[in-house]
Design brief:
With 535 residues, this protein is an alpha+beta fold. It is built from 19 helices and 13 strands. The radius of gyration is 30 Å and the shape is globular.
């Protein structure tokens, strides 16, 4: 026993390796199985914070005291200044002439979350050193990094969510993406990777298996963050929005003589959906949308919104974690339930649908044409083009032929054709884009009805829930109408549907006694019941 103890003391004081922390990091960062962006982060943190402070230290000389001193230094100054007067924070590391952007140095600490990242890098590297027999004891085991920051999610409020949805749907394709983000809570990289083959709109299921990674200009397809292959149930409203999105996509592709393939991306700027959106660009567009509305938020906060609304609706934590793709509870749920379209997930989809803000109506615009007796050539040409647009010869969302071609096809000059197109814009039929093609705006007044949707529910759900047409009234005046799944005989279900509708419409729950919920079976005009909640 004495000899064993002496050996342990000897090995601790006399390391079995002379390798430095720099050498350890060199080998660890090459051999560790890390995702590309994670490895890039690790390399950056090592270069800026670990190597300058510990790089020449021998691995065997590390202990808890050295680690704690490192964390103290990181909390003092992120630039690891020499504590001398007259230092300057330069605007660039390149040679330059200093201006007002170069200021006297001010020490700023690293965030606690960043220090914890550095701790995890060293933890992984020293664990590997133990496997390689470079050290006998892992010195980081007794070190104390900063505690994990407390979660402080700040999702948009119900009123803000309604404003965001209304603004996003000014572009229906963009509105569909923002809506799906809000409903599912998916990360932006996951949304960019969804293909039409991943959507089963007949059964209302989204299969999520990939994500788009981005690091600067480099982009690649990868597994989801938690390496989960999960299926998410979609509510009826979301299915209808995706069907409309698919119809618009097919109209554009067919107008260009292309075919919408199953492996095409659902959200794409390419006419045939062959290229995915760029995650950073999606985040930037959402940020600009929020800035226009003067709402301080990011697209990642929509994950918080989805989780908050589900939890507020009574959905259990495991189901919420599974829908968001979180580890821990989400992973356990996926392992426990082989059929992800479970009763709990069906309830989750229906619950979130009732709490979503109402999307703006997409009815065709009413266009009033002036009483025009065409006399000049450009007016005759404008009327002819108007009739072709209304008849569907020129499809909405697609560009008109160039002005020169319009003139040539109608035996008119380019100037006459240009004045005719300007008149179409005045009537609201087309959208003029300086420097780009003119886009048709008019949509036929009779939209194509979406294909019927059938969602297979477990027997226990089918026995108690059904699709309902619901009308919310306040003091006798209709506030909103929508469709959702629920049990018309359950006061709890009806109250939940009513509360969700009041929140979406911007009403006050304190005035719930002023509201009533008229319940009809889907497609029926006869009320089943009228629900009035007590305060």
């Amino acid at each position: 026993m004495r000899i064993s103890l002496l050996n342990q003391v000897y090995e601790k004081r006399n390391p079995r390796t002379k390798a430095t922390v720099n050498q350890l990091l060199d080998r660890y960062l090459v051999e560790a199985e890390l995702e590309f962006s994670t490895r890039d982060n690790y390399v950056g943190y090592s270069k800026k914070h670990i190597r300058p402070l510990l790089g020449e230290t021998k691995v065997g000389a590390l202990d808890a005291g050295v680690m704690d001193s490192l964390y103290v230094e990181l909390r003092r100054c992120r630039d690891h200044c020499k504590k001398t007067k007259g230092q300057t924070d330069h605007r660039t590391v390149r040679e330059h002439e200093c201006d007002d952007r170069c200021r006297p140095h001010q020490c700023r600490p690293l965030a606690a979350s960043t220090i914890r990242q550095i701790h995890f890098i060293l933890q992984g590297a020293l664990k590997a050193a133990g496997r390689w027999k470079w050290v006998t004891n892992n010195p980081i085991a007794d070190a104390e990094p900063p505690p994990a920051p407390k979660g402080n999610p700040r999702p948009p409020s119900a009123k803000q969510a309604a404003r965001i949805i209304n603004e996003a749907f000014k572009d229906p394709d963009w509105g569909a993406l923002v809506w799906l983000t809000m409903v599912t809570g998916h990360r932006r990289g996951e949304l960019c990777a969804i293909r039409w083959a991943h959507l089963d709109l007949d059964h209302g299921v989204l299969h999520l298996e990939k994500a788009i990674g981005q690091r600067g200009a480099k982009k690649w397809e990868k597994d989801t963050k938690a390496h989960q292959d999960r299926r998410i149930t979609l509510d009826l409203e979301t299915v209808e929005i995706l069907r409309e999105h698919q119809t618009r996509f097919k109209t554009r592709t067919s107008g260009l003589g292309l075919e919408l393939r199953d492996d095409a991306y659902v959200f794409s700027l390419a006419p045939d959906g062959s290229r995915h959106l760029i995650p950073d660009s999606v985040g930037q567009r959402y940020r600009k949308l929020a800035e226009r509305l003067e709402i301080k938020t990011t697209i990642h906060k929509l994950r918080h919104y989805s989780a908050t609304e589900l939890i507020a609706g009574g959905v259990d934590i495991r189901t919420v974690a599974g829908r968001l793709g979180h580890g821990g509870g989400g992973t356990t749920t996926l392992r426990a339930y082989t059929a992800w379209s479970s009763e709990a997930d069906q309830r989750a989809a229906g619950t979130l649908a009732t709490r979503m803000p109402a999307r703006p109506t997409t009815a065709a615009p009413t266009i009033e044409f002036p009483d025009l007796e065409p006399t000049s050539p450009y007016e005759h040409l404008a009327v002819a083009l108007r009739d072709q647009i209304i008849a569907g010869t020129f499809q909405p969302g697609l560009p008109l032929p160039p002005v020169k071609q319009i003139g040539a096809d109608n035996n008119a000059s380019a100037g006459t054709a240009q004045r005719a197109v300007k008149l179409l814009a005045d009537w609201g039929l087309v959208e003029l884009n300086p420097g780009r093609r003119t886009i048709v705006k008019y949509t036929a007044a009779t939209p194509v009805a979406p294909a019927p949707i059938s969602i297979s529910l477990p027997p226990s759900v089918e026995a108690t829930t059904t699709s309902l047409d619901l009308e919310v009234r306040q003091l006798g005046e209709t506030v909103t109408k929508f469709r959702a799944d629920g049990n018309p005989d359950s006061n709890a279900d009806l109250r939940g549907l009513l509360v969700g509708a009041i929140r979406r419409s911007g009403g006050e729950l304190a005035e719930i006694g002023d509201y009533e919920l008229v319940v009809r079976l889907a497609g029926s005009t006869d009320p089943v019941t009228t629900f009035v909640a007590t305060k």
